[in-house]
User: Fold this.
Amino acid sequence: MTSALYPTYARADVAFTRGEGAWLFAENGDRYLDFASGVAVLSLGHDHPHLVETLKAAAEKPWHVSNLFRIPEAERLAQRLVAVTFAETVFFVNSGAEAVECAIKTARKYHAANGQPERYRLITFEGAFHGRTLATIAAGGNPKYLDGFGPPLDGFDQVPFDDLAAVEAAITEETAGVLLEPVQGEGGLRVFPHEFLRKLRALCDARGLLLVLDEVQCGVGRTGKFLACEHSGVTPDIVALAKGLGGGFPLGACLATREAAKGMTLGTHGSTFGGNPLATTVGAAVLDVVLAEGFLARVAALGGHLRQRLAELHDRHPRVIEAIRGEGLMFGVKTRVPNGEFAAAARAEGLLLPIAGDNVVRLLPPLIIDESHISEAFDRLDRACARFAAKAEQLGAA
Assistant:
């Protein structure tokens, strides 16, 4: 059958009928260990009972009223996000790209409110991915995503990854702030060093710039802290969240200090669906679990265990695996073979992995996994690596 969908995705020929925890079940009955989590979205895995019951109850109440009226569910979720982060105010959206768009607008409007509208440019980093809107592909700067869409939106100046001197050199009288992912997801699971982030915060303070973080993929507990920037002790001015915030339900948020958001006054921004009762009720249910006592500490401990097993895999297969990167339950395996082929080999072994830039495959399991899931993933990765090792031996013999 010819699909009526845009042909913009290279979809694997497998469809799923059921999910349970960290497992997905295909139409033909095959079972897969899901270490993709819908690309870091399913923070609590599949069919989580608290999320399911919460959504069922919410479905019997008004789904949508628009932001022409108060939405108590959104107000309560915003207050909880404020209580657990640096933020003092929140704007809800439906996706990560929208959250980053709101963050960009907030940073620009801050300087306009200060009487400096010429300060609209943001410094970004090579390897970044901030979304697929015209503004966010310009911020990311990847030629692959920019090609064919006309001149890139003005206002973004890219510098090399982890290069503070380049950041300082790029600052002009038009610079509004710096935008980065503490852990670059699509860019290959590259982690900005904590000391770099601390020095960047100091530089922003000294030059009157806003520090804007894209934690769409690395936030909401993915690295063992609610926000990844907490590892470095850095307090941002604005943060974009999405993916894991809704646990599978479309939900994003832009978090900011009141000072940073002071330009976002009546009528400056809006969203028809953003913050609707269904989404924010499910988001609150995700926080019930993620913010429960001991949950994030458990994620951090499991992340340490996963790092050890991946290091063991690296030692066992140095001809297949080049490097291991990441934090918490957000890891990247840089392979010496094409990453797409490696992901396909893992899928043949019943393990789902998304790929990333720099020839990396990502491990983004649900945050509710245990050590048995990590052991299972190791065994399947080991078999996937063995496929390539056997192929190399055959080629060598030939």
In short: The longest helix spans residues 371-397.
